[in-house]
Design goal:
283 residues, alpha/beta, Elongation Factor Tu (Ef-tu), domain 3, Rossmann fold, seven-stranded mixed beta sheet, 16 strands, 17% helix, 32% strand, binds flavin-adenine dinucleotide, binds FE2/S2 (inorganic) cluster
Length: 283
């Protein structure tokens, strides 16, 4: 029997920070931007390493002291030694990123965290449940199905506030839920999932990424042993030092323990996340 965490893998992370330059920066949807970065030519690393879907990088602005702390972003795609990230313009770093021009330098640490082996997408049926910019984290998995010509094996449920927020790169059958009714189903993702149950019930695996309240709201609808939640806990370092990303999970003996999401995650199976869902923090 597969152990609770056996599915996820952690490839080796390159040591230290890599200086990268922004190669392309453009809006991709309302308040969301795509950037491609590649290693600075003067550095020792010429190409960014391969990554597994679900892995992330810590990005920082090298020419600014505020914000001092790097922020985590999921790797969306890779091409010719470059990475793509998609971010929602949210707080300090992302507001600065929008203003950063092509050629600007960033600090990148990664790929970090455990990811999903690409082999995993070669069989079975897969259901992707995304809220807002959480869709970006699921894009490498969706692309993997497309690469394997397995579009029929995937289904997307995508929740947004409004039509303009949709990242229009949706290569599988999909349904949209929008808060204001401007696209698809007028309402929230959990309601859409209940309405469309026959379209996803026979999926073998579920991948969920979005705002924490949304992920908690769909939790009870999905099979916990076949659901993978992409947590977006606040992170300080991304590699286990600051203890800023702790989440309560169940261990093999079904006891609650606290783990660092950057090391043990950021992807967790629903079956271990029960204490997170229930808001339990006491050990
Ligand atoms: C593994 C991982 C992958 C991520 N991938 C992406 C991605 O691909 N695209 C994307 O847009 N975002 C992603 N995020 C979320 C992103 O890192 C945060 O939103 C980040 O704080 C944005 O930086 P900022 O400086 O613009 O905002 P900040 O100034 O850091 O944040 C503004 C406000 O949000 C709060 N906050 C910060 N981080 C979080 C958080 N994780 N959850 C809830 N509240 C928070 C702060 O306390 C503050 O009040 C990811 C997070 C994780 C952990
Ligand atoms: S982010 Fe620092 S320990 Fe996880």
């Amino acid at each position: 029997m597969m152990t609770k965490s056996a599915l996820l893998e952690k490839p080796p992370t390159p040591q230290g920070m890599i200086e990268v330059r922004i190669i392309q920066s453009r809006p991709i949807a309302n308040n969301q931007w795509s950037i491609w970065v590649k290693p600075d030519e003067a550095g020792a690393i010429k190409e960014l390493p391969s990554f597994l879907p679900g892995q992330f990088c810590m990005l920082s602005l090298l020419d600014r002291v505020d914000p001092l702390i790097a922020r985590p972003f999921a790797i969306v795609d890779q091409d010719d030694g470059m990475y793509q990230f998609i971010y929602r313009v949210h707080g300090k770093l992302t507001h600065q990123l929008v203003k950063a021009s092509v050629g600007s330098k960033l600090g990148l640490v990664g790929p970090l965290g455990k990811g999903i082996p690409r082999e995993h997408l070669k069989k079975g049926k897969h259901c992707f449940i995304a809220g807002g910019v959480g869709y970006a984290s699921l894009m490498p998995l969706i692309q993997e199905l497309v690469k394997n010509k397995r579009e029929d094996a995937g289904r997307i449920f995508y929740g947004v506030r409004e039509d303009l927020e949709i990242i229009r790169k949706i290569p599988l059958a999909y349904d949209i839920a929008s808060d204001d009714g401007s696209a698809g189903f007028h309402g929230r993702l959990p309601e859409l999932l209940k309405k469309k149950e026959s379209d996803w019930k026979d999926s073998d695996w579920f991948y969920i990424c979005g705002p924490t309240p949304m992920m908690k709201a769909v939790y009870d609808l999905l099979p916990p042993d076949r659901s993978l939640y992409f947590l977006e806990e606040t992170m300080g370092c991304g590699f286990g030092i600051c203890i800023g990303c702790v989440v309560p999970i169940l261990n093999e003996k079904s006891e609650v323990k606290k783990v660092r999401s950057c090391i043990e995650g950021p992807i967790f199976k629903g079956e271990v996340l029960k204490p997170w869902k229930d808001g339990a923090w006491a050990l």
